[in-house]
Amino acid sequence: MDGVHRPTGTSVRAAGHVAGRDEEAVARTEVVVNRMIPRMRREYEHWPRLALTIPQAARLWSADQSVCSAAFRALVRVGFLAHRGDGRFVRRDQSFERDSGAVAA
Fold first, then answer.
1. Rounded Cα gap, residues 99 and 85, in angstroms
2. Beta carbons within 8 Å of 54's beta carbon, 6+ residues apart
3. Which CATH class is domain 12-103?
4. CA atoms within 13 A of residue 85's CA, in its CB half-sphere
5. Which residue, 70, 73, 76, 71, is CA-closest to 91?
6. pLDDT score, position 93
7. Is the CB of residue 83 less than 8 Å from the CB of residue 43?
8. For site-directed labelling of 96, which of 25, 69, 83, 104 has its Cα 20 to 30 A away?
9. Is 70 exceeded by the pLDDT of residue 24?
10. How many angstroms from the chain centroid is the CA of residue 61?
11. Distances (CA, A) of 22 to 8, 12, 45
């Protein structure tokens, strides 16, 4: 043995396999988020006064809330969207955001 205590049935190989699957899951999530960003951007361009929460966006686009959250963060980071105090994401160029307590996400 290598002197490391492992629970019965656990091996270095199995642990590495799980880590590999986690990395694959992260990579798949990144792909999904990168596909979601342009889709969300198009919807907000088509409907300039759209104001969605993360759960609403997840239902609208049939996506996980974590994917919508990551895509929203990216769109806020580039200055396309603003995150209002009520939890809704709106286009930054909309004048009504000034009255709604927009905050940076």
1. 10
2. 65, 68, 69, 72, 87, 89
3. mainly alpha
4. 7
5. 76
6. 87
7. no
8. 69
9. yes
10. 12
11. 22, 15, 35
The model's pTM is: 0.67
Cα–Cα distance, 24 to 100 (Å, whole number): 39
Distance between CA atoms of residues 74 and 89, nearest Å: 12
Phi and psi for 83 in degrees, rounded to 5? -105, 110
- Token pair recorded at residue 74: 């990216």
Phi, psi angle pair for 56, to nearest 5° = -65, -45
The tokens describing 57, both together, are 């966006």
3-state secondary structure of 105: coil
Check if the beta carbon of residue 70 is closer than 8 Å to that of residue 103: no
Parse the chain into domains and list their residue ranges: 12-103
Taking only the tens place, the pLDDT of each residue in 30-75 is 888 889 999 999 999 999 999 999 999 999 999 999 999 999 999 9
Per-residue tokens: 83: 């995150």
